[in-house]
Structures are given as C-alpha cells and as structure tokens.
Design brief:
heterodimer; A: mainly alpha; MetI-like fold; 12 helices; 75% helix; 0% strand; B: Rossmann fold; OB fold (Dihydrolipoamide Acetyltransferase, E2P); six-stranded mixed sheet; 9 helices; 21 strands; 23% helix; 34% strand; binds adenosine-5'-triphosphate; binds magnesium ion; cell membrane (chain A); membrane (chain A); transport (chain A); transmembrane helix (chain A); transmembrane (chain A)
Chain lengths: 303, 361
C-alpha cells in the first residue's frame, strides 16, 4: 500500500465504518423474517409477533408430517419442480448449443420471441392455457379410458395435463425455458468451436463429443440454468393452484396457503414450520450451484 | 506427401479459395503465409477435413482424401487456442485420442509418457491446463497431436498467443521437434518473420490464390510479383514509380521521384519502355558521396538498433527506408545523397508482375 497522510486514512476508516454499519443494518433487516420463521417454528406457542420461545419443541414439525400431509406435499413439490428442472437443463443444453452454433436467419427473432413467454405475466394467459390443457387432457382421457377403464384416473394422475404431474411439469418447464435457453446460448457462444473440432479430429463420435467434451465444459452453464429454473419454479404458486385440484397432488406452497386459510384459529407454529421446510431446498440448491455460478458469471471456462 | 490440385472453396457465392495448387514433400516444413483474411485458415481446415472442398483434389500419400472424415486422414492439428480440455489433466488431454479408440489405460500411459519425454512435460502430466503457462500449454497441444503419429501435422497460428520472447523460443523448439520427429508440417501464420525463420518452403497466399511458393531465400531474392516482394522481408521492399527509356541496346534509363535517375544494365533488352515500378530493399540503398548519388532526400525518421540504423527518407506518402550499418550522425531534416545497388533492383510492371529480378542481368 502507498503511504497515505494520517488524516486521509482516518477519513477512510470512518467511511468504512459507516459502510459496514449501514450494510449490517440492511442485512439484519433482511434476515429478521427468516430469523422469525426459524424461532417461531420451534416455539410451542408461536404468535404473529417475534418473541423468544418459552418452550422449545419439535412438535410443529411433527405436526406437519403427522397431522398434515407434509411429506406428500414435499414430495410433490420436489418431484414436479425437480422434473421440470431436469427437463429445462436437457432442453436448454441442447437448444442453447444449437442456437449458439446455427447461422440461420431466424435465430435472433426466435431468441427475442421466446423471451416474450417470460415477460408476459402467466396470470394474463392462464385462461387460454387452462383451456388448451383441458382439451389435451380430455383427449388423453378419451384415448386411455377404453384401454384402462377404471385405472385411468390413477394413470392420469401422472400423465394428465390437468390435475396431473405431467401437465404441471411441462408448463413449469416452459415458463423457465426461455431464460435458460438464453443462458446456455450465451454460454456456448463463449465456448470456442476448437474444442469440438479438436475432438472431431481425435475421432470422437457425436455421442462422445457431447458426453466427454461438451457436457463437462457446459457444466457451469447448466448449473446456472438449472438453478434459475429450480428457484423460479419452486417459488411458483399460481400454476399449481390452477392446474391441481386433487388433495394428493398438492404442493408445499399450496399446503401452506390452505393451512393459512383455515377458518378456525391460525396455527402459526405449523405455518412457520411448513414455511421453513419450503425454504430449505431453495437454499440447498443455491449452495450446490454457487460454485458453478461464480465460474459462469466470471468469464466462462478457464483454461 | 500432400498435394492440393486446383482446390476451391465457396462461402455462398463468395469464392475464398480460388484454385490453389500446392505440394508439400515428406518431412518438409511448409508455411502458409499471407495477410489477414487471405484464406490461410480455410485452406488448412480443408486439409484437416473441418471444411468441405468444393472442387479440386486433395491427395495425401497418393490417395485422394477429399471425402475421408477428419479422424481417418492421419492428420493432426494444433489449434490457435490450443483447445485443451480444462476438465482433463495434461495426461488425459494428450491421451484423449487413444482413450477414444479404447486403447488399454496402461498402454495409453506408456505412450503419453513417451510423448511427455520428447516435449519435456513429465512433471506436468497430472496438472490441469489452467495451471500451465502459455508455452507449456502449447507443448501439451503439440503432444496431443504427435501421439497420433500423424503423417502430417497442421498448425494454425500456434504462436500468436505467446509474448515475443517466448515466441522466439518456441520457434526454435518447433524446429527441433520437426527435426526429431521428421514429421511433415503445414504451418499457418500471418507473420513473415516466422515463415522466413522456420520454413523449408513458403507458400504466400493472397486473396485465395497462391502468389508464390518456394524456399524462403528464393522468395526473398526472386519474388514473382510485387505482392510477394513487399510481403517477404522486414522492413518492406521500397516500391517507387519510375519511367523507363531505352539507352542504347544494353541498358535502360530510369527516372523516378525525388529527382531519381539511374541506369540499369539490360543485356537481353527484355524491359519495355514506359511506366514501371522499381523495387529496392532497404539494404540495397546506400548513403554515398553527392556526385555518386542517384537521388537525394530529406531524413524524416532515424531508428537506431545499435548494429544497424533505419533511415526513413522522403515524403509521408512516398517514404523510402534505407538500412545503414552501425550508427549514423544524421538527424531528421538532414538531406542525404543516396544510391541504389543497380544489380539488386527489381522492376515490376504497373500491374505488379515481375519484369526483372535482382542479379538477373
Ligand atoms: N464461415 C464463413 N462464412 C463466410 N465467409 C467466411 C467464413 N469463414 C471465413 N470466411 C471468409 O473467408 C476468408 C478467409 O478466411 P480465413 O479465416 O481463412 O482467413 P485467414 O487467412 O486465416 O485470416 P486470419 O489471418 O485473420 O486468420 C475471409 O474473407 C473470411 O471473411
Ligand atoms: Mg486464420
């Protein structure tokens, strides 16, 4: 460090202090809701206001999984959002690669057009979307019922477009795909063709080029695209609300919502425990992807 | 031996390779050189099989390989970016082509170590490319090429990412490798110094055609045209517009800018009268006594390199570079009398064809 006059360094110290103080205040402000959640979820008698619990207990969590269908909600959420994320990663990986390498004239118009899907609020489109899915669903039902008869409903729970996993997975993936395609296209733009051509000259087949060269190189980008898809789909509330009705298909946010709406008194302990469970996967996903994110946003692949 | 016969390449309607004929003999170090955009990379990638050939023949060791896939040609390529896989170690990078062929890991390791020995990479085999210096990455890229025991190795501007000191060192290293492996090499660069120092044969490309091919010194002393004459050699050959008039049967008289007047021997009367272009290299111009001068000009720039000095004389739009041994006392603004070595003068026609080479009288 260069020598600074004492007055100036004291000034800088004071400025640093101010910066740290205000940043700490802001972070405390942001952290308080989470803190409240955590504390209240272990409180035997949780209230609307932040308070130190008189008795610490796991009863709230226990209630989520015994009295309520918490395990089922958690599974539904993880399954639906996880499947949508995997779908988005596969499609955005392949599609982003194609969009990056093609010289077709429609490339840019296409890229901007798909962003519209993301920009337009899904709420505005929910009626036509529902109509469309309902038509598909009815067609599927008409097709399956003669074959499977009474078992049709059980099958449609997985493959149905309305009140079935498949429909929600597809719609959630569709919502996340544009941004992920952009992320992957930009990522592959920064990946020199030389890598593939070198592999080609070394005699790698198409599958080998993808598996041994492209996928490892694209991992940071895929992690970023998957993370955004997961976090955004995990937080989505409206689509499952509209598309799912069976109690056994409910997702975590829906369970939380319905628990909140109960007419008799509000059970804050249960709500906060549910909310905390709802938070955990998002935080875990962020933890996993952070390593890759840093790479992606600090200038692509090194080496 | 690799032979290109009237090879052409179109991008849409744009012809970028316009009928190229080149032969590279076994064990030869051939350098394709030319200005940016002349089609060097395209030509190299056509040889590698990464670009299709629209017409003409590509013949390797007597076999036409136009339609042979890249990995079946027995050709290896070192990319400008090196294209080392960041997720593999140096050993895995070098052995990648073997592992694709399902060679046993033990055998791969043995061959990788053999290659690493030649390239002095032994200590680096377990590192990732990200932890290597530029020169080391370069050597790994070469290792990945030579482990395939190719009959031809292609290089696309392999030294352009290195700093100038390392570039000089790698030039020597590449030549050593070439000798040790007795490999056939086609090397692409836009740097004529690289071409001159390394090549057995230089192929000068200009706008998709071969301007001239031959050993470096032949191109230097006997260029076929003005393009090659000015491209090869540093600093560039001076080109001056002149008017020629016949003077008796055995000589011509040249009149040029800056009051230039000189007489060239032309025993076989091959030079026409009229306008032409005089080419004379900086080392063939001398500062002389005023009464022996062909012309005189004002010094604009003095560049002292110690062992030699370059004087730039004349006007901005017609600068003339003169090489002088050792140091000089001239300063910008001084007027110096100059003479050309008439035996070393080149004469080009107005459209750039050679009419008379140096020492050709
Ligand atoms: N895919 C392509 N589509 C259209 N034109 C192309 C394509 N690739 C190259 N070209 C054109 O072909 C010509 C030759 O390109 P090439 O890359 O071979 O030049 P180069 O001699 O290697 O130049 P440099 O020294 O800059 O690498 C250039 O004019 C370039 O614009
Ligand atoms: Mg090039």
């Amino acid at each position: 460090m260069s020598v600074a006059p004492p007055g100036e360094s004291a000034n800088r110290g004071r400025a640093d202090l101010m910066a740290y103080a205000s940043l700490s205040l802001i972070s405390i402000f942001c952290a308080i809701p989470f803190f409240w959640l955590l504390i209240a979820s272990f409180d035997g008698n949780a209230q609307l206001f932040l308070r130190w619990p008189e008795t610490w207990t796991f009863a709230n969590y226990l209630r989520v999984f015994t009295k309520e269908d918490g395990a089922k909600w958690l599974f539904n959420s993880l399954f639906v959002v996880g499947s949508a994320t995997v779908l988005v990663m596969v499609l955005s990986g392949l599609g982003g690669y194609a969009l990056s390498r093609t010289r077709a004239w429609w490339k840019l118009p296409f890229l901007y057009a798909i962003l519209l899907i993301r920009v337009l609020p899904s709420t505005a489109l929910i009626v036509p979307l529902y109509k469309f899915l309902l038509t598909l669903n009815n067609a599927e039902g008409a097709l399956l019922r003669p074959i499977f008869g009474g078992a049709t409903r059980d099958i449609m729970r997985w493959t149905g477009f309305i009140d079935g996993y498949l429909g929600l997975i597809l719609v959630l993936a569709t919502m996340q795909l544009p941004l992920s395609l952009w992320i992957m296209k930009t990522f592959f733009d920064g990946l020199p063709r030389d890598y593939e051509e070198a592999a080609l000259m070394d005699g790698a087949t198409m599958i080998q080029r993808i598996r041994r060269v492209l996928v490892p190189l694209a991992l940071p980008g895929l992690a970023a695209s998957g993370l955004f898809a997961f976090m955004s789909a995990w937080g989505d509330f409206l689509l499952p609300l509209i598309l799912l009705s069976s109690p056994e298909l409910q997702t975590l946010p829906l369970g939380l919502f319905r628990a909140f709406l109960r007419i008799n008194e509000i059970d804050y302990g249960l709500l906060t425990a549910l909310a905390f469970i709802y938070l955990v996967p998002a935080v875990v996903a962020f933890g996993f992807a952070r390593r890759f994110l840093v790479q992606t946003f600090s200038g692509g692949v090194k080496g | 031996m690799i032979h290109l016969n009237n090879v052409r390449k179109f991008y849409g309607a744009l012809e970028v390779i316009k009928g190229v004929d080149v032969t590279v003999d076994d064990g030869e170090f051939a350098v394709f050189v030319g200005p940016s955009g002349c089609g060097k990379s395209t030509l190299l990638r056509m040889i590698a099989g990464l670009e299709g050939i629209d017409s003409g023949d590509l013949v390797l060791n007597g076999k036409r390989i136009n339609d042979v896939p890249p990995d079946k040609r027995g050709i290896a390529m070192v990319f400008q970016s090196y294209a080392l896989y960041p997720h593999m170690t140096v050993a895995e990078n070098i052995g990648f082509s073997l592992s694709l062929k399902k060679v046993a890991p033990k055998e791969i390791r043995r061959q990788v170590e053999e290659v690493a020995e030649i390239l002095q990479l032994r200590e680096l085999l377990d590192r990732r490319p990200g932890a290597l210096s530029g020169g080391q990455r370069q050597r790994v890229a070469i290792g990945r090429a030579i482990i395939k025991k190719p009959s031809l190795i292609l290089f696309d501007e392999p030294l352009s990412n290195l700093d100038s000191a390392l570039r000089v060192q790698m030039r020597a290293e590449l030549q050593r490798l070439h000798r040790e492996l007795s490999a056939t090499v086609v090397y692409v660069t836009h740097d004529q110094v690289e071409a001159m120092t390394m090549a057995d044969k230089i192929v000068v490309l200009n706008q998709g055609t071969v301007a001239q091919a031959g050993p470096p010194m032949e191109l230097y002393h006997r260029p076929n045209n003005e393009f090659v004459a000015t491209f090869i050699g540093s600093p560039k050959m001076n080109i001056l517009p002149v008017t020629m008039t016949r003077e008796g049967s055995e000589s011509v008289h040249l009149v040029g800018p800056l009051g230039m007047a000189l007489t060239l021997v032309d025993a076989d009367a091959s030079l026409p009268e009229g306008t032409a272009r005089l080419g004379v290299r900086p080392e063939h111009l001398k500062v002389v006594a005023p009464d022996a001068a062909h012309f005189a000009a004002e010094v604009a720039i003095v560049e002292r390199l110690g062992v030699e000095t370059y004087l730039t004389v004349g006007s901005i739009d017609q600068p003339i570079v003169v090489r002088v041994e050792g140091d000089v006392t001239f300063r910008p603004g001084d007027r110096v009398p100059l003479a050309a070595d008439t035996a070393a003068c080149h004469i080009f026609s107005a459209d750039g064809r050679i009419l008379r080479s140096a020492n050709a009288a």
